[in-house]
Fold this protein.
Amino acid sequence: MKLAIPKERRPGENRVAASPDTVKKLTALGFAVTVEAGAGIDAAVSDDAFKDAGAQIAKDAAAALEGADVVFKIQRPTGEEIAAMKKGAMVVAIMAPHSDPDTVAACAKAGLTAVAMELMPRITRAQSMDVLSSQSNLAGYRAVIDAAGAFGRAFPMMMTAAGTVPPAKAFVMGAGVAGLQAIATAKRLGAIVSATDVRRAAAEQVQSLGGKFIMVETEADMETEGGYARELSPEDRKKQAALVAEHIKGQDIVITTALIPGRPAPRLISKEMVASMKPGSVIIDLAVEAGGNVEGAKADETVEVDGVKVIGYANMAGRVAVNASALFARNLLNFIQPLVDTEGDTPSLKLDWEDEILKAVVLTRDGEIVHPDLAKGGGG
């Protein structure tokens, strides 16, 4: 079985879908691993490191993808990559099916089995395959580091002979994986940290990290079975907006992390709220790629409103490319490992289409769009 790792081609993507460690393990499983030359350079992995781990180095994407049974990627494939893959190949990546249905349709037309790693179900045996968690953890950390870099003052309280420097006040919106890591990082840097989330269960986690939890009381449980936040009702959205508007005035740093799977990011901060903050304050919008939590935020730009910086990096995890690549590569290895049948003379993929993991992540198969959430709308 040939497994290909092409160089990422989507703008701003500097991660790579393998590491020398996972190449060794994939080779041990029976895969012939081929890595495109230069695929790992931006993540500090040389061609020689991949070669020493047992991979073949291909001169270009076409050579890497030719005849591949499995393709590992970070981002969904481009049209050129899809055209270079053989019919029946499995491509495993962050596929963004809701925002880019055309790529899903192209995969179906090409006869590919497209796997969306971001749709991994939140069940115990899939935890080690969860790319959203591994990447969000790093994104939450990096958001605070970027905020500190853009903030013209220190985070911790400092007592000096010349006077006292007050601690920064940081407010994190959304207490999922990214939010909790942002809380922990801001706290370690010495900030006074507060956080909000629509899920009551998040209060204990926030408080355990030393943050103050604030939220709007709702009658309904705002947590889905998968652990994600539900969308607020119009009335509760008004209450939440009023709470945030009042709290945000006194904050130096705000980090927004709210996402609803398969839907545009909820708008949490209006232009008026931004304008109410003190000059020199910093907002980091981690949901900017999904439309943004902050009104006026722009992907990969810093927008300044009355001295307040609104920063929206579309690929925050990619700003910690070395660690992000290693963790993503491990997620991919953990996904493919149980699918390899090693009992015969030659290893092969043994796919149980009724398995709840495959049912959750497989978008296309045998020329059709098979994921229930996508097939409903037609296509393929």
The first strand starts at residue 2 and ends at 5. DSSP finds 13 helices and 19 strands in the chain. The first helix runs from residue 20 to 29. The chain has a mean pLDDT of 93.
